[in-house]
Amino acid sequence: MAKDTDFLYVSARIKFLETKLLGRTVIERILDANGPEEALKVLCDTEYNSDIAEMDNIYDFEKVLEKSMARTINTLKESFKNHELIHFFTVKNDYHNLKVIVKENIMGSEYNEYFSRLG
Fold it and tell me: Which of 12, 86, 103, 109 has the most CB atoms in a 10 Å sphere around its CB?
């Protein structure tokens, strides 16, 4: 019985999170935007609003996406008991960080700004 309730909880949680995804109309409005400023104005009407408000530079949008992804991963970790399943979706970040380390060793330079905080 516990597995059934766990499944129902996780299913309901995922359905709720799906409502926060960007819809087709929002994506079309972003694509039709005349520049990054206008695209960010469109995103201010979405879940990204609080993160966008904290941006220092309009071109720091990658940090907004990374912060949102970290929140999503943490939410999934709280919801799922099986973290191996979550690792399946985040392992690409580990590989990215390994590539950065290899490049650092080959080039003899530090590339700390290229590390993903998600891996």
Answer: 86
Tell the residue number behind the tokens 């080959």, with chain if given. 106
The SS3 assignment for 96 reads: helix
> Tens digit of pLDDT per residue, the chain (119 long)?
466 777 788 788 888 888 888 999 999 999 999 998 899 899 998 988 888 888 888 888 888 888 888 988 888 888 877 788 888 888 999 999 999 999 999 999 998 888 888 87
> Tokens 């060793």 identify what position?
105
Tokens representing 47 are 């879940």
| Cβ proximity of 73 and 57 under 8 Å | no
Q: Evaluate whether 97 touches 45 at the Cβ level (below 8 Å).
A: no
Question: Residue 2 is which amino acid?
Answer: A
Cβ-contact 33, 42 below 8 angstroms: yes
Q: Looking at the chain, list the stretches that DSSP marks H as alpha helix, in order from N- to C-terminal side.
A: 2-18, 24-31, 36-43, 49-53, 61-79, 83-107
